[in-house]
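anyone seen this seq b4? input:
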Amino acid sequence: MAAEDDPRTALDSFAASVADWLDLAVPLKFEDWKSGIETAMEQLTRRSMETGEPALMVIDEHSYLLAGTPALSSYIQNAFDRYKRERRGTVRIVLCGSAFSLMANLLSGDKPLYERAALSKLIRPSDHRVAARYWNATHRPTALRLHAIVGGVPGYRMLSEAVHPSSGFHAPGDLDEWVLATVLNPASMLFQEHDRLLREDPRITHRALYQGVLRQIAQGVTKPGKIAAALGRDAILGPHFADLVRDWLADQGWARLGFAEPGEVGQTTISSGADGQRGHQVDVVMLDPDSSPRGDRISVRLLGEAKCTAEPRSGHDLRRLEKLRERMRSVTKIDVAAAQYTIFSESGFAADLIAEASRRDDVHLLDLDDLYGGPSG
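predicted toks r here
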């Protein structure tokens, strides 16, 4: 079951699935979800006892069903509790859903299924390397921009191909054509996807920024720099690039840089030391494996810049990191004595930075080829 149907249609679909599983020649008809869940649990228990194997029931898009039948979780709770008391057979129930806020709240203390789950797992989207292969995005700057739009959600490809089949993304023009035909096309399911996600995800607290970007595009402002200027922001693609870099570093980048073990990866802001002035953002920070940002002593292994600009990064970026490292030395609990530097760039590196990095063991330069290479690339 995975459709956003009205309660009666969804219940009939559930009954049909149960009848098919039981190999019945005649269809089943449940009066309500309570009787449907009870019947399904009884049949699952019976099948498990007959075969000696666990019986499994999977309900997809549970959040859709809850919208039409708010008591559904209670019905599952009652049926499951009765099964647990009788201890007959082995029955497993899997509840799936794409509405993050509802599913995240499903097992909270005031909900019917509280303390009844053996496992709660968040299925994360594919990383940028797997996504590039899946979408056949061979041009890496274009792959980065595509990932900034759709992330690693494979289902978006099916939605987009319904209105605009694509053979891949091999040049910037391929992405431009695809965006116009899908994301900005009112006939495409992707057109309203942003609004649905903003409503469902409680982590998004700055909805106005997302809507502001869309308003600028609708008014004909298409260059990221001009959109950023209109919104008073420093970057649009930049934050996504920095997120991608941190994910890569935590996943496999630590090994690619020659470290024996991974350390916690994040970002931080260093105080400017002057009242009323903004702090200095550090895009990438990796700690030693035995260190934690909540500990009494924080050992920093790596400081990094992650910039997604049209200009190559230069020695200026390295000087900035060195100054920030010196400022961090004044903080008693932070140890940066062995910290190395890493600069990530979409557009490569200037000659002065390349020359200096070649003479030093503590400076690493990484571009899109590095980020999209490796085991998943």
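The beta strands are 55-59, 91-95, 265-270, 280-287, 298-307, 334-335, 340-345, 363-366. The chain has a mean pLDDT of 85. kinda curious what u guys think
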